[in-house]
Amino acid sequence: MTNILVPIGNSTDAHHTLQYAVDFASDFGAKVFVMEVFNAKSKTGTLANVSEKIAESSKERLKEVIAQINAKQIDVKIASYNGELVDGLNEIDKELGIDLIILAPRSHDIQEELFLGYTSGRIIKQTDIPTLVVPRGTTYVPFKNVLVAFKSGILKRKRTIDPLVTITNKHRAKVNLLLVKTPGYSDEDLMVNTALMDISSQLTITENATTYQGVLEHFQSKHPDLLCVFRRKRGFFKKLWEKSTILKAEFSAPVPVLILSSKKD
User: Fold this and answer.
1) How far apart (Å, rounded) are the C-alpha atoms in residues 140 and 177?
2) Angle at CA 53, nearest 5°, toward 52 and 58?
3) Where are the beta strands (DSSP E) in 182-262?
4) In DSSP terms, which residues pair with 82 in a beta bridge?
5) In this structure, is residue 232 part of a structural domain?
6) Which helix or strand (DSSP H or E) is residue 133 part of?
7) Strands 226-231, 145-150: pairing kind
8) CA–CA gap between residue 241 and residue 20 (Å, rounded)
9) 92 lies in a domain?
10) CA-CA distance, 202 to 210, in Å (whole number)?
11) Which pLDDT score is estimated for 48?
């Protein structure tokens, strides 16, 4: 794990998420990039350098956020983009090679009943970059117990779980697999990929209406400090991702959630 990206929104608590990312990066020897996306287009009659002025203002704001944290030995770099959010993420990923995005589930002013706000929801929904969603107020500590929940054991690309493997190897974490048989499952879904089996210590198979209901049923007994799920066409968030925001009633977790994108699976 080399490059970690932290999108900074308008939350007054943004420095808490950045501090978590820096602590995480320090543990893995990774670099941290803070990013803010703005959308400024010059029009006839406006100042020609309006984009440059907004970019400079954005850069100054990011510097203020960085100044609030203990950067340790990490050189936190600034990455800004003029344009649409997802385009900016993909462009920076193309340029730098982002291994992981770390973000808070929602902005400071988002409704309390939401787990994912509009911006964080779009980032996870519309990119292929692995993402770690960190609940507000969470302090970074090594993960010891990981719960990986899925409705299909099919994994066409082994590298999909690379972030999970890196984390579990570094922390010597115990990995519990939870295969949730949902209505319409196939026998092929029950064949768990060997790459997942190789890093796990236990496989539990349950039957529920949704994968999330399976997680709720087994969360307390497994006591995970990290929940890992997949973002793919027929995976954990199949229905949830029809919109960008996600209600806590639809999904919520008191621990960090690692979302591995496997849209092509």
Assistant:
1) 23
2) 95
3) 202-207, 226-231, 246-247, 257-261
4) 38
5) yes
6) strand 131-133
7) parallel
8) 26
9) yes
10) 21
11) 52
Q: Pick from 133, 164, 179: which residue ends a domain?
A: 133
Instruction: Dig out the tokens for 100 from the structure.
Output: 């992981």
Most confident of 117-131, 150-164, 247-261: 150-164
User: Residue 108 has which token pair?
Assistant: 């400071």
Residue 78's H or E segment, with its range, is strand 77-82
Average pLDDT, the chain: 82
Q: What total of structural domains would you count in the chain?
A: 2
- Residue 178 sits in which domain range? 145-258
CA dihedral angle for residue 192, residue 194, residue 200, residue 205, rounded to 10 degrees: 10
The listed range with the strongest mean pLDDT (69-83, 185-199, 211-225) is 185-199
Same domain, 103 and 159: no
Instruction: Give the pair of three-digit tokens for residue 195.
Output: 């790459």
Using one digit for the tens of pLDDT, what is the confidence trace for 1-31? 999 999 887 677 889 999 999 999 999 999 9
Question: Contact, 212 vs 77, CB < 8 A?
Answer: no
- Give the single-character DSSP code of 173: -
Q: How many CB atoms lie within 10 A of CB 38?
A: 15
Q: 76 with 107, same domain? A: yes
User: Is 265 inside any structural domain?
Assistant: no
**Alpha helices of the chain — where are they, by DSSP H?**
14-28, 50-67, 85-96, 118-126, 162-171, 194-199, 211-222
Residues 234 and 150 in one domain: yes
In a domain, residue 106? The reply is yes
241 band by pLDDT with thresholds 50, 70 and 90? very low
Instruction: Please say which residue of 133, 162, 192 terminates a domain.
Output: 133
Same domain, 43 and 128: yes
